[in-house]
Amino acid sequence: MSTTQGEAPNAIEETVDTLGSGSQVASVADPFTSKAVRKDGTTAYATITYKVAKNKVTDVSRTAVDKAADQAREAGLTVETGGTSLSAAPWGTTSCCGLRARSCACFWTSPRAA
Question: Which three-class secondary structure state does DSSP give residue 81?
Fold first, then answer.
């Protein structure tokens, strides 16, 4: 399976749209337009940039990422999420200091039985 074939691109686009609808979200980098898809098509990354500092990202916003990931899983994709904004802790890595909080949602396909 590939993130660039079949229904996967549509599912990823819908998930990116869902991620971008959050009130604290400044932008979501579409993996297809930002060239964040591996050459073999197995992995695509979408980076979420928030309007607020990472310690101000609410539980509602973190839950929205989980729900968007579940939406992609229901479409048959394997999804992992992570990043300092998804942690409820008010601290993060020094590389994030002074930058907008970011959270990365990773989408990739796996050969799941239908």
Answer: strand
Query: Phi and psi dihedrals of 81, rounded to 5?
Result: -125, 155
Q: How far apart are CA 106 and CA 64, in angstroms?
A: 15
Reduced DSSP (H G I as helix, E B as strand, rest coil) percent helix, strand, coil of the chain, to 5:
35, 25, 45
pLDDT digits (tens, 9 = 90+) for 3-57: 888 888 898 899 999 999 999 988 888 989 999 888 888 888 888 888 888 888 8
Question: Half-sphere exposure of 57 toward its Cβ, with a 13 Å CA cutoff?
Answer: 28
Question: Could you give phi then psi for residue 109, rounded to 5 degrees?
Answer: -95, 155
